[in-house]
Design goal:
The chain is α/β, with parallel strands linked by helices. It folds into two domains: 167 residues, Rossmann fold; 57 residues, N-terminal domain of TfIIb (Single Sheet), CATH 2.20.25. 26% of the residues lie in helices and 37% in strands. The protein has six helices and twelve strands. The strands form two sheets. Strands 4-3-2-5-6-12-11 form a seven-stranded mixed beta sheet, with helices on both faces. Strands 1-10-9-8-7 form a five-stranded mixed beta sheet. Strand 8 and strand 9 form a beta hairpin. The radius of gyration is 18 Å and the shape is globular. The termini are far apart.
């Protein structure tokens, strides 16, 4: 066994298909798409775009989409599907958009100071009266749903996930064993920890350039584990 390393978001990208979140992801895409139907948008920026599944949906609706992600693995997969995606931070993004989305816990990967900077950057990229939609984990979603240990495997991969929630932070250790070439049954071990942060709703109220116009608590994995936030540019 050989120990190797990659960025924690790239590690997540490599392990994502073993997490069993496909159904939840599709449900979120349906929710976001439904909300955006209420607005006449022509351009959209998907922050944390992943493999581009949501962009594909919106493109099929005639919306011009761009995606950004901090995982180079995700971005390369988008490009392989001929999607407009870049491996950059939102502060480096150019242009302006009718709508910006941050799907599946993107905001929870930011600590408080990073979150405030992120929301300011979002406001700068929105057109006048632009809409921003994001989802966050509730306290229950962190403490009763996300916390715990799970494992999954197939014939060439083995994943262990161990998550602990304390002091408003979820620390999730990913340990992934890969045997990509099946050479002498040697596995490469990748291990890293991803931190997510619980944010109270009051954090999103009274922002300088974004107005929280709606919030909806809903169930993705369990009772009331997520909150959808909808903002308009002030």
């Amino acid at each position: 066994m050989k120990l190797n390393s990659m960025t924690n978001l790239d590690l997540y990208a490599k392990a994502e298909h073993l997490l069993g979140i496909e159904e939840a992801t599709e449900a979120l895409y349906d929710l976001y798409r439904s909300e955006l139907d209420s607005y006449k948008i022509k351009t959209l920026l998907d922050v944390g775009c992943g493999r581009g599944g949501f962009m594909k949906r919106m493109i099929s609706d005639g919306v011009s989409c761009k995606g950004i992600d901090l995982s180079s693995v995700m971005v390369e997969e988008c490009k392989a599907d001929s999607l407009d995606a870049q491996h950059i931070d939102i502060s480096q993004t150019e242009g302006s958009y009718d709508a910006i989305v941050a799907i599946f816990d993107v905001l929870n990967f930011l600590n408080h100071d990073e979150l405030i900077d992120f929301l300011e950057a979002v406001s700068k990229r929105l057109n006048d009266d632009g809409i921003f939609i994001a989802d966050i984990n509730t306290l229950y979603g962190f403490s009763d749903v996300a916390e715990g240990t799970m494992s999954a495997e197939n014939d060439k991969e083995f994943l262990v996930v161990d998550a602990e929630f304390a002091n408003d932070e979820l620390h999730t250790k990913f340990t992934l064993f890969l045997n990509e070439e099946r050479v002498n049954d040697k596995y490469i071990k990748h291990q890293d920890t991803i931190v997510q942060y619980f944010h109270k709703i009051k954090t999103f109220q009274n922002l300088a350039n974004l107005k929280l116009i709606d919030k909806q608590t809903f169930s993705l994995y369990d009772t009331k584990d997520k909150t959808l936030l909808i903002f308009k540019k002030r």
